[in-house]
Amino acid sequence: MSSQWIMAIFIVLAVSLAIAPIYWMRPSPRQRQLARLREYALSLGLRPELTTVPEVMQRAGYEGRMMKYQLHRPSGDWPREGGTWLALLQPADGPEQRFAWPDRGDLKGPDDLLRPLQQELPEGLFAIEASPSGVGFYWHEAGDNARVDRFFQLLQPWLTQYPEAFARSEDDVLQEDDSDGLQ
Questions:
Q1: In what order do the strands lie in the sheet with 99-100?
Q2: pLDDT tens column, 92-144
Q3: What are the structural domain ranges in the chain?
């Protein structure tokens, strides 16, 4: 009888070893939640990507890599050249925590873009960035579709003001080139 028990234990172990990798490959609840968030973001036109954060964010204490949901060149008239605007959540506790432009002047945009971020501090949002490649936000993907919607709404003023600011500077360059050609 003891040999039958040994054989039964051996069979149970063999079956367990065969089935275990299947369970390891199943996504965890967190992985399923992230997949749903990313799929929803894609439906809005946002492209989720794990990216290296700008150096100014690293100096402020943020991790070196973070998820960024970005609208890549959202419209045909999006500037191909221009600066980068970065509204950064200043790492602090309590009422001192706020969004601000970094000390580097080349990363500053219009102050009215900060107002919606100051009125209601969006939980989980760490930065919004606009550049010639598009406009997007950095976050830790904590939340649901409603949070993605809220962050997407915060991008709307950026979608209008960034192209306006850099289209003017591109027009100025084109006018200078035209006037040089006339001489």
A1: 47-52, 65-72, 134-139, 125-131, 85-89, 99-100
A2: 766 678 899 988 778 888 999 998 888 888 888 999 999 999 999 999 998 89
A3: 28-182
- Is residue 79 a contact partner of residue 107, using CB atoms and an 8 Å limit? no
Q: How far apart are the first and last CA of the chain?
A: 106
The answer to whether the CB of 88 falls within 8 A of the CB of 100 is: yes
Residues 1-17 pLDDT 10s: 578 888 888 888 888 88
Burial of residue 160 (CB within 10 Å: 0-12, 13-18, 19+) is exposed
158, 140 in Cβ contact below 8 A? no
Please work out, in degrees rounded to the nearest 5, the angle formed at the alpha carbon of residue 30 by the alpha carbons of 25 and 34.
100
Distance CA 183, CA 178 (A): 9
SS3 at position 137: strand
Tally Cβ neighbours within 10 Å of residue 56: 17
Global model pTM greater than 0.85: no
**Rounded CA gap, 33 and 144, in Å?**
8
